[in-house]
Predict the 3D structure of the following.
Amino acid sequence: MSGKIKIFADSTCDLPSSWIEEHDIGIIPLYVVFGEDSLRDGVDITPVELYAKVEETGSLPKTAAPSPSDFIAAFSPYVDRGEDILYISLSSELSSTYQNALIAAGEMPPGKVTVVDSLNLSCGIGLLVMKAVNAANEGASIPQIVDLLNSYVDQVECEFVIDTLDYLYKGGRCSGMQNLIGSLLKIRPVIKVVNGSMTPAYKVRGKKEKALDQMLANALEHVQDMDNDLIIVVHTMAESEALMLQKALQEKTGARKVSISTAGCVICSHCGPQTVGLMYTKKPH
């Protein structure tokens, strides 16, 4: 990336590693905690290893935010080189990640670190990160990039089809009875991000394809309002379904790019395997 702006995100942005490398995006990992072991998302543990561990132990990990000192350690080398930092955070409604980044920014020289609350998760954050990268490459200043991001934050659409209720149940997000009934009736919950929080949007009974078709139909209702730069399909061990959605979106939206990404360990911990998400931005008002 040209200029003296260094863009950071955290591991929950779920951007493809090739993009992170190409655009020199700094990534600060959250933690996945199994008992006494705190493992850095994407550094010390992968989704495949996480699911194997859950299978082995029968319990889900907890997830934890990076500490202020984690942020300071990540930011300091760039600040020392005279670069300005823009960090785009996981939603403040879901984690203390944003708050800890603000604490770290307060320890840096004034004005050197700017923190933006994405009010989103997964590639919903990633879409904003790519907006920031492109703007920085075009020579925009940090205040200009922040204004741009603020115009898009509430225009990010983010939905997930959850394949199994087990992870929501083990994570305390639905009761045992709901889990049993949901499993018997093959109910697929669809989760939407609203005002920075994960909200059950609706439930689809029957085959998973039916839920995916509904999620696709919801997106296609907004084709006229879509920002056509980038749509991202994100998944946890559900590549064939992600490819199917990618193909349909390429055919029906006219987007310049429809990309597939895999979710990191934090998203996997909360949603479970075979989850499929669809993220895009609408044009700002």
Residues 2 and 137 are 6 Å apart (CA to CA). The longest helix spans residues 123-137.
